[in-house]
Amino acid sequence: METEYSNKPAHPLDDAKHLEKLRSTIERAIADGKLTAQEMQTIKAIIWSNGKVSAEELDLVRELIHEKVASGEVVYDWT
After folding, report:
1. Cα separation values, 68 from 8, 38, 41, 46, Å
2. Residue ranges per structural domain of the chain
3. Burial 36-57 (b: 16+ CB within 10 A, else e)
4. Which of 31, 42, 56, 79 has a CA between 20 and 30 Å from the CA of residue 5?
5. pTM (2 decimals)?
């Protein structure tokens, strides 16, 4: 019996490209130590561009944004 998972990517290469685009966008956004509201909107748009949010996308946001904000490496700049 074969089990199908609804979150299994239909095209793994497309998924890998999507994650790399998200990673590079986040890295560019936080390179100056600040994350603006506009940068966060761009990141969210990439995350939702395929109509779903994956665990891998959430891991990238946690690793590259939340942990760096918590450690003081990055600050939110909503002004």
Report:
1. 29, 18, 18, 20
2. 12-77
3. eeebbeebeebbeeeeeebebb
4. 42
5. 0.81
